[in-house]
Model the fold of this input.
Amino acid sequence: MSALALTIPEPRKRLGLKGPRAAQWLAEKGITPPPLPNTWAHSEGAAAAEALLVARLGATEFFLEDGAAGTTLERISPFLDGHPPGVYPVIREDSAFVLGGERVHEVLAQVCNVNFAALSLDSRPVIMTLMIGVAVLVVPHGAEEYSDEAGRREQSGRYYRVWCDPTFGPYMGECLGAVVAECGGSYTGVRG
Amino acid sequence: MHRLEKTPGEWLDRSVDLRFTFEGRQYQGYSGDTISSALAAAGLTLMARSFKYHRPRSILSFANHDSNTLFQVDGVPNVRGDVTLLRNGMRVSAINTFGGLAHDKARVLDRCARILPVGFYYKAFHSKHLFPRWERMFRALTGLGEVNLGAKRESTPKRYGFCDVLVIGGGPSGLSAALAASERGAQVALVEESIRLEGNGAPSALVRAARESGAITLYPATVAAGYYADHWVALAHESCLTKMRAKAVVFATGVIEQPAVFRNNDSPGVMLASGALRLLARYGVAPGRRVVLVAANLEAYLACLEMRKRGVPVVAIVELRAAPESDAAVAACAALGIEILCAHAPYEAIRGSSGTVAALRVAPWSDGRLDGGAVRDIECDAVLMSVGWAAAGQLCLQAGGTMRYSEELQQFVPADLPSGIYAAGRVNGVYEIESRIADGRRAGAQAAAHAGFGAAPNGPAPRRSTRCPSHRFPIIDHPRAKNFVDFDEDLQVKDLENAAQEGFDSSELLKRYSTVGMGPSQGKHSHVNALRILARVRGLSVDQLGLTTSRPMYHPVPMKLLAGRSFHPERRTPLDALHGSLGAVWMPAGNWRRPEYYAAAGESRQQSIDAEVHAVRTGVGLIDVGTLGKVEIYGPAAAEFLDRVYAGRYSDLTVGMTRYGLMLDESGVIIDDGVIARLGDERFYFTTTTGGSATVFREMLRLNALWGLDCALVNVTGHRAAFNLAGPLSREILQGLTDLDLRNEAFPYLAVRSGNVAGVAARLMRVGFVGELGYEIHVAAGGGADVWRALMKAGTPRGLRPFGVEAQRVLRLEKGHFIVGQDTDGLTDPFEANANWAVAMKKPFFVGQRSLRILQARGQRQKLVGIELDAAMPLPKECHLIIDKDAIAGRVTSIAHSRVLNKSIGLAMLAPELAQAGRRIRIRAGDGALIAARVAAVPFYDPKNLRQKPEMSQ
Done:
């Protein structure tokens, strides 16, 4: 299992969409949104670095993040300038973090009351909750659980992508980083 | 007490010596010792002084359940000696002493006990003037450890835990419950108060199986201190607090041994037999060299045999019952030649010169009556009490369960438990080891089934003990009292009897008046005996009185665990780092940190603020207003929604224009304000106050869900940076950075435009909160710093200064603009705040409209007015009262000295009859002085508002 670490990923383009026709509009643009609220999907057929993450936050609300080399949002955003009816763009300037490695669940247990270790990744869950008092969006990734030699259930390589309001970003980084450090991990610092 | 030779199974590593001091003297212990065991092994019998009478005390339960062995350790108060491991170099001292433990000056209070009964202070000190003096004295004389206010804070984590089945208690029933649940596939958390699972009476095979189970997580040295709703249990460990959420809970919490109540039963050397056994087995410490057992159950004889096995002499067993049960252990004790005095009771413990027990005076006893004429003294240095148990059932009660008093067992047992809660073992009245294991398996399987692992078992009901392990009334009266029921609070039998006779005769009232069970032990050793005494006084059964429920935490928990890491979410705007580099002096604003002002070299705080104000009035200033709430609303019904939420009208607002918005609650009180901009027919963008952004947005979501209008709200507060460029030069400087036409014809006052500023897409609103030509610039958070830098670069050669919250407050005060929450309060309506102009009463509906109609008819209660002080100084403070005819007539809400006006000005809430311009008023300052002022018209500055619309003056 990799070492515990909190990192700030490379900046990526993000967009939110709301409105009764948001799902239909995405489909028209060739993006298949996940059918269920609180789940996520990746754009089909794209390489990992280009894949668009689409998280369905509610019946009519979406969070989209391009892969590091993705161009989908750049392609579809201009279509919103015409204010299509029933589709409302939402500016997303979130602070983003990636938390993963050994003892990741001990860190999460100290900052959030959601039982992340019990989540099944097969259902591609999106969790909207409070973490150290801040509203966050969390998407778990990584390998599924396995049993070690003693029969204990472990999650190998599981990591979590965390987004929050950017004005809470420094606070989140400092506090999460301190807990990570106390648990023997590292925090790569604040993006310049 | 003394240390014995090493034996297998003890918890010590005798190869590692540890040195420590107690009351300044050096002692030695071993690795694995607790503070109490090391002191006992060193032969110390005097370890503490009691709370009230400063009586000598020593080990009682050796279970972390009593207050006798609380110590001050390295400056930390109330450290629990029974369970705190000894460290090399530890400095330990007794608590609550004056001049040291041995020579405690306050021990004289013990001789005054007769005149200091329970509640004496309620009756003796009636003068309200003198009572504080007595209170201070009592507080000094009584108490526990000394808090070191200068101590460094220890930050400990609070963590959340999750399991299918939580088992509390690591004895035989708890272990078997955990194993039974885990065998069904449940994830189990097992909590045990002791440092180790071994030595708690469970077969070693059970302990081994639990350790080897991959599905059982062990929490040793952890106390389940409180139960909260939905199977949420607080687990307190020395280093962290775990909030454990379980699907089902098994209480295998066991029983707590109860003391016999007789004169001087609190003397050092008198202790619970179970505590003595723990000392002996785990730490190799003998309780004495001549031991007497006070017995009322089989456990006493088993303890006796254990003592003898380790070579500890037991000279007599004082049996409260007419005869012990027929059992091999009893026969073995008799066979060893130990004198068994049946139907006898301890009359009193006779203390030696050091205050420790030197002999036990016993007498024949039957039907609760003692034959004082046939007393006999048995010389001894230790008295072990084994007379009964109390169920550790407080968590059951906290969980909403009920308990009944079993006359057969003389113990409370669970009567009715809520769904998902199970009890097993001795707390359930099941005493024999095989039965405890079976009961544990039953409870574990039921809990697992409740958590979704298999069907509920149809096992037999728990087999409760057929013998009675507890004496029904182990309380022996003595004419000279000092027979203690509650060791924490120095409560004697007569204290409780007197309380009951004075009318405090229910278990709840008795507890509150006498404070029984309110000390660190939380009644673990006193609750049941107190009920027995109350039952005798009232002629009722214990069951009829019932138990009181301790509120969580049931067990004392260090404050550091409750405080945890103390996370305080703080918001910072995207320009935070830039403010820091500009010398910002920070202030909290809601959960934001904002620059109060920017400290400039060679300037005082006031000079910096004055310079910032001056820059805005004469040149240009730039302030970060990114903390304002920022919301977008889309949809066909967006205008209607705003018409309903705000007091003004927005359905007729022209696209490209803004309008002030005043938000009221249902009672017509002002709760927020902001600026609403219409971006399109179905698109609006609006701001809220800094402090109100989260609550306002939440309320709007609620209203939108309630009304079901076809519109959607988006909170973009944190995702947009915003700043206000204000001052006569603002247009000129901004024009050089934007593609927008800023001329008045193209961008008039109160207009909103979208364009680029410094290459960044921006929304600009021409508004004038500070009373000068100004532009509020809103950009995506990521572009905020670039735009700010560009503005600073363009403006600095023209004298641009960043300005902070303090300068903004002065600037808006000069304009007479109120701040919601500062100049208004929880009762202020728009009429009182002179904001009638922002209310469209003719609209069909808005929140608060109905109340405003009533308020209009009723007339005003207060009025917000401007005030001018006769003299510039002294300056009253905000909230200082306005006095008229020796009565309060209002209060100052804002005040400042205006350099540009060269006078001190403010806003005040005033009685309407005084609110005419020119009316003289007096303000009472903090020192009581009355400061002269008069009511003045607002705005104080630029009353025709020409400076924010300079084209109007041309």
